[in-house]
Write a structure and sequence with these properties.
The chain is of the alpha+beta class and about 100 residues long. The protein has helices spanning about 45-55, 75-95; strands spanning about 10-15, 25, 30, 60-65, 70-75. About 30% of the residues lie in helices and about 25% in strands. The strands form 2 sheets. It has a 3-stranded antiparallel β-sheet with strand order 1-4-5. Strands 2-3 form a two-stranded antiparallel ribbon.
Length: about 100
């Protein structure tokens, strides 16, 4: 706690349904209360979880202490953009390119 009696909590990284607006709490549970939601601590962990569980219609929410100005990261657009970049890079090199010079 700080000198004002408030907790010094860092930003929280949450996963939220864009349909129900519920936050992920556990593997198969959700909550309206962001304080009860699972904190992934890092966006990379949240992204990995979304990919591994093949979650759809979700976003990552960055919750900051002492403010209601959350940051919502649209996942679908980020994943689609990454997929397109990978495909473009793969097409430029070709599938048989091994990196060796002939």
């Amino acid at each position: 706690m700080n000198e004002n009696g408030q907790e010094n909590r860092p930003m929280r990284v949450l996963i939220q349904s864009i349909i129900s607006h519920l936050y992920l709490r556990g593997e198969d549970s959700a909550t309206q209360n962001p304080e009860a939601a699972r904190d992934f601590k890092h966006t990379s962990r949240a992204l990995r979880f979304i990919e591994q569980k093949r979650l759809t219609n979700v976003q990552i929410v960055l919750k900051f202490p002492k403010t209601s100005d959350d940051v919502n990261l649209a996942i679908l657009e980020l994943l689609e953009r990454d997929r397109k970049k990978f495909e473009e890079k793969f097409q430029q090199r070709g599938p048989s390119s091994s990196g060796r010079r002939s």
